[in-house]
Design brief:
Shape: globular
Oligomer: single chain
Strand order of the largest sheet: 6-5-14-15-16-13-17-20
Bound molecules: adenosine-5-diphosphoribose, P-hydroxybenzoic acid
Radius of gyration: 21 Å
């Protein structure tokens, strides 16, 4: 097989890159280790920034998102058993977020690629990449037991945090920056109408909780738990008790319903620099991870591949490698801004040590500052709705 761009991984980064390249007349092949059914049903992130929504609309994949996505003008910070609304729309001069599940984005992108005769090879095994320090990189893998090779001009490593691309870069060529957190999120998808029209980020003595949604009849909820939490210790009734306690406030009723899915989301901050080695370019989770508290993961993946597609288009139209050479540096500005914001949100809401009463009172003062100062609330709203630089 031969293509211009060999893309490893059919997550938001790999699929959207393939879509953008197609719009520029550049050929690509995506290879993915899981099945189509698997990637289309995996419940993950759900918040699209205004810039991501605009990009999906401009590139022709926004139809279903416009119909089914839930546009939010604000969100709630809940602490001391009181609600404080951040009016993002008003504070940012008209920016909002759209709640639309990552697996819906994946379905739309897979459909768009296949309708345009794009090639996605699912269920590949033993993937390896070769010669990416030369002008003739190669990807090898097995499909249905047969060995295959793709010869390409460039490789896009869009294979997530656990992928093979980043570890294929010679030791010493990358600098890794990391932070681990002493907690994780237990997430549930419940067949219950959302209990509020907007997201609720709650700081509670017992730990963080988040109320989100996927549709008018599906609620997505998270609660802070131990990093090595065993789901068996969390029967449904216990989850509802804990969520009800953490969201408790006069006049608030948490809607309860059958739990359809439960999972544990680890919390990690991570950046690999630079996001390039020779003709291998990393994008999305393969190069960086943020804890989900800032709702930035999918947006960062989309922002990376937007720059990568532009740089590749410039290369093919003019032969100039200038944009490719600055790809990493330009991505990393946004990446580090998201690192800062996600770290800040995480530390403002989670209890690293339940016995640390000083830290809890400091967090309450920080939340009080944000909700009583228009300047502080504006800054939060700007960061949450997306960074203005492109
Ligand atoms: N070969 C082929 N595919 C692979 C390999 C491999 N060796 N390793 C991993 N993959 C696939 C995974 O199965 C997955 O479908 O690469 C894809 C990576 O997708 P994501 O993990 O979704 O990463 P990315 O596209 O960068 O999107 C980032 O995902 O984790 C969320 O919150 C995060 O929203 C963010 C988004
Ligand atoms: C989600 O709906 O899954 C979600 C929302 C906001 C976050 C993280 C996840 O900060």
């Amino acid at each position: 097989m031969r293509t211009q761009i060999g893309i490893i991984g059919a997550g938001p980064a790999g699929l959207f890159l393939s879509h953008l390249l197609h719009l520029q007349g550049i050929d690509s092949i995506v290879i993915e280790s899981h099945s189509r059914e698997h990637i289309e049903s995996r419940v993950r992130a759900g918040v699209l920034e205004q810039g991501t929504v605009d990009l999906f609309n401009e590139t022709g994949i926004g139809d279903r998102m416009r119909r089914e996505g839930l546009s939010h003008h604000g969100f709630e910070l809940r602490f001391n058993r009181q609600a404080h609304r951040i009016d993002m729309f008003e504070l940012t001069g008209g920016r909002c977020i759209t709640v639309y599940g990552q697996q819906e984005v994946i379905k739309d992108l897979v459909a768009a690629r296949l309708n345009a005769a794009g090639q996605i090879v699912f269920e590949v095994e033993d993937v390896s990449i070769h010669d990416f320090d030369s002008a003739k990189p190669k990807i090898r893998f097995r499909k249905d037991g047969q060995s295959q090779e793709i010869a390409c001009d460039f490789i896009a490593g869009c294979d997530g945090y656990h992928g093979i691309c980043r570890p294929s870069i010679p030791a010493g060529a990358l600098s890794l920056y990391e932070r681990a957190y002493p907690f994780a999120w237990l997430g549930v998808l419940a067949a219950a109408p959302p209990s509020s029209h907007e997201l609720i980020y709650a700081n509670h003595e017992r730990g963080f909780a988040l109320h989100s949604m996927r549709s008018p009849s599906l609620t997505r909820l998270y609660l802070q738990c131990a990093p090595d939490e065993n789901l068996e210790n969390w029967p449904d009734a216990h989850i509802w008790e804990e969520l009800s306690a953490r969201f408790e406030m006069d006049g608030f009723v948490l809607n309860i319903g059958p739990i359809l899915q439960k999972n544990i989301t680890p919390m990690r901050s991570f950046v690999a620099e630079p996001m390039q080695f020779g003709r291998l370019f990393l994008a999305g989770d393969s190069a960086h991870i943020v804890p989900p508290t800032g709702a930035k993961g999918m947006n960062l993946a989309i922002a990376d591949v937007r720059l990568l597609a532009q740089a590749l288009a410039r290369f093919y139209s003019s032969g100039s490698e200038e944009e490719l050479a600055t790809y990493s540096q330009r991505c990393l500005r946004r990446v580090w801004r998201a690192q800062y914001f996600s770290y800040f949100m995480t530390n403002m809401f989670h209890r690293a040590n339940v016995a640390d009463a000083y830290d809890y009172r400091r967090q309450l003062a920080e939340l009080d500052n944000i909700t009583s100062s228009r300047a502080a609330a504006t800054n939060l709203a700007e960061n949450y709705s997306g960074f203005p630089f492109r």
